[in-house]
Fold:
Amino acid sequence: MQWEKVVETKVCKHCNSSFDITDKDLEFYDKISPVFNDKKYLISAPKLCSDCRLQRRLSFRNERKLYKKVCDSCWKEVVSLYSPDKHYKIFCPDCWWWDKFNPLNYGKDFDFNRTFWEQFNELNLDVPKLAIQNTNSENSLFTNYATENKNCYMVVWAWQNEECYYSYRIFGSKNIMDSYDLAKSEHCYECLESDNLFNCKFCKWCQNSSNLVYCQYCINCKNCFWCVNLRNKKYYIFNKPYSKEEYELEISKIKKSDLDKFQLLRLETPYLSNFITWSENVLWDQLLNCKNCYDCFTFRDSENCKYSAIWEWNKNSYDMNFWDNCEYQLDSTNLEQNYKVMFSYLAWYINNGYYLSTCFNSDNLFWCTWIKKWSYLIFNKQYEKSEYEILVPKIIEHMIKTWEWWEFFPSSISPFWYNETIANEYFPLSKNEALKKWLNWSDYEAPFPKVEKIIPASKLPDDITKIPDDILNRAIECEITKKPFKIIKQELDFYRKHNLPIPKRHPDLRHLDRMALRNSRKLFTRICDKCWIQIKTTYSSDKPEIIYCEECYNKEVY
Structure:
């Protein structure tokens, strides 16, 4: 960024790519470094590039691979993030949050003759795991990173929704199917990165609109089909206006082959280089009301952040994902309302925490897991404040000698297989590639429920009225992966209501198809196709889309 000066170029120890360290980076690492007994324990510049740091963090986040297991406390069946081929103790949310079990019973003394990672991994294996993050929901067992949902199934990272299915990042919405990143919307199918939509299908980047089909970049629009870049319009097809009567007549004639014509329209219509709104001195994409944020995307109301993504109200932090209302965070994921938390995953309402896993409402923690409402703990063992402040520096000195200080958890001790995590979405690897990198991998497949018959997807009629009720007792063979999948009743009802065909791809593949529709998570330098100034954009120069800078785009559209 314009206010930073490169002071060192390093080579990533994992991928051998070069990356820069700036003067502002060093200032940040110095500022966030912990101080004990008037001595600062400096956090040095990272040894990995930002992509490898991200890959390592994401290898600790399983979102969509859910399994049926038995709670090791109450013995009831529970939906779990942990596959049966892992030998962890699993507690259902009710038992895990219950104060009957004391996490300090698992506390250990630190052994200065062993590495830190080795000891923490043993602690992590001993302590019961929270089966799934799903709270205050009704009839929504198969939802994860979710709260206050009703009648939802296979929805991830969602809250305050009703009757939503097979979707990701859905907020305050109802009757949503196969969608990504929707807010305050209803009756939508295969829609992406939009909000305030009603009865829309196959739409992307649309807002405050209703009855749209195959539309992109449309705002405050109604009754539009195959349209791009419209504002405050209604009764449009292929960006051409019609009367209400003409529109309804033309809609009745639309054929599936018209999709090719829409693809041509997309390539003839300019795209905005990136979505940056009310922001100052920022770089990347999908930034709203941000200041001094570099290499950040899907970010809002934040400032002084770097190499971070997804979510809001954050300050003075580096290398973060899935977080909100935090300050002075470093190289962590899934954090909420923390102050000075580093190298941690799933830590909420924490002050001064280092190397934490699944900790809440606590302060002054070092290498802890399953902690709720405690202070001055090391390895889940209680200390007096004075003892804590003497022992932690000794452990840091040991970690410096063993080259473990300054680093997030190694992927080798992740509680999830690499192919279960979203790291494999952002950085896809084959089994052999993963194993060569010392990443965990498993070929475990949950048993498929017994069905009357498995139908090849190619045998399914496109006309939903020809699909019998007994499809619910059968399975469909994915047209690509050949993996079988079932249709649930609520899903069938949705397709019938909206006159949609039964999908021919497995839900996992449909999810990956939607993720592939997102803009690249990389920045490229190219030229505005209107005024020829140099711009930064998530569209590489070999992409066929016409890309405009913000000024040219606004002149064109508005």
User: Anything to note?
Assistant: The first helix runs from residue 23 to 32. Residues 524-557 form one domain.
